[in-house]
C-alpha cells in the first residue's frame, strides 16, 4: 500500500485522511477524564444545593411554628384582657381539646375561651401545650399590682422522635395597667 503526500486529499488504506497525525500514547482518554471530573464537581454541587434546600425548608417550618406560638399567645392575652374581671380564672382552666366543645359565639365564658384556644393550639403546633400562670399570685380585679400573667407554649420540633429532645418553649408575659 502506498501513501500519498500530506495534504493531497487522498485516503490511506487505514481509513484516516492522509496527514492526520496519530494520537500520542499518553493522551488517550484524556477528554473522558475531564468529563468525569466535571460530573463529580457537578454532583457535589447538586448535593450541596439539595442540603441547602432541605435546611431552608426546616428553618421555614421552625419560623412558621414560632409565629403560630406568638399569635396564640397574643390571642389568649387579648381574650383575658377583654374579660379582665375574670382574667385570673383563665389560669385555673385546663380543658382537654379532644373532649371540650368550642362555641366561638360565646365571648365572655372563660371555659369556652380556653376550650377554643386549646383546640387552636393543638391544631397549629405539633404536640403543642401551654401553661398560663400568674407569677405574683391571684389578684382581685382592682388590684393592678397582681395583673401580670405569663403564657408558656411548648411544641415539638419537626423530625424529632423524642418529645423532650427537640422541644421549643416560648414564654410571653403581659402586665395590665389601668
Would you give an account of this structure?
The chain is rod-shaped. It has one domain (29-175). The termini are far apart. The chain has 178 residues and is α+β, with helices and mostly antiparallel strands. Strands 1-2-3 form a 3-stranded antiparallel β-sheet. Helices cover 42% and strands 13% of the residues.
Write the layout of secondary structure elements.
Blueprint: H1 30-82, H2 87-92, H3 110-124, E1 129-133, E2 148-156, E3 167-175
Antiparallel strand pairs: 1-2, 2-3
Rounded to the nearest angstrom, the distance between the terminal CA atoms is 113 Å
Number of domains: 1
Structural class: alpha+beta
What helical percentage do the residues reach?
Answer: 40-55%
**Beta-strand level of the residues, as a percent range?**
5-15%
Q: In one word, what is the shape? A: rod-shaped
How many whole angstroms does the radius of gyration measure?
36 Å
Biggest β-sheet, characterized? 3 strands, antiparallel
Mean pLDDT: 77
Amino acid at each position: 500500500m502506498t501513501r500519498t503526500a500530506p495534504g493531497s486529499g487522498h485516503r490511506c488504506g487505514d481509513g484516516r485522511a492522509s496527514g492526520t497525525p496519530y494520537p500520542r500514547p499518553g493522551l488517550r482518554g484524556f477528554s473522558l477524564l475531564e468529563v468525569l471530573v466535571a460530573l463529580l464537581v457537578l454532583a457535589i454541587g447538586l448535593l450541596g444545593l439539595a442540603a441547602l434546600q432541605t435546611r431552608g425548608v426546616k428553618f421555614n417550618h421552625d419560623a412558621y411554628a414560632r409565629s403560630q406560638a406568638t399569635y396564640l399567645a397574643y390571642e389568649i392575652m387579648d381574650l383575658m384582657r377583654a374579660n379582665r374581671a375574670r382574667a385570673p380564672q383563665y389560669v385555673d382552666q385546663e380543658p382537654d381539646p379532644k373532649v371540650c366543645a368550642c362555641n366561638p359565639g360565646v365571648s365572655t365564658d372563660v371555659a369556652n375561651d380556653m376550650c377554643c384556644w386549646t383546640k387552636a393550639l393543638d391544631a397549629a403546633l405539633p404536640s403543642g401545650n401551654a401553661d398560663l400562670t400568674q407569677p405574683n399570685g391571684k389578684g382581685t380585679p382592682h388590684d393592678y399590682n397582681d395583673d401580670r400573667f405569663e403564657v408558656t407554649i411548648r411544641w415539638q420540633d419537626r423530625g424529632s422522635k423524642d418529645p423532650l429532645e427537640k422541644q421549643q418553649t416560648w414564654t410571653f408575659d403581659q402586665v395590665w395597667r389601668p
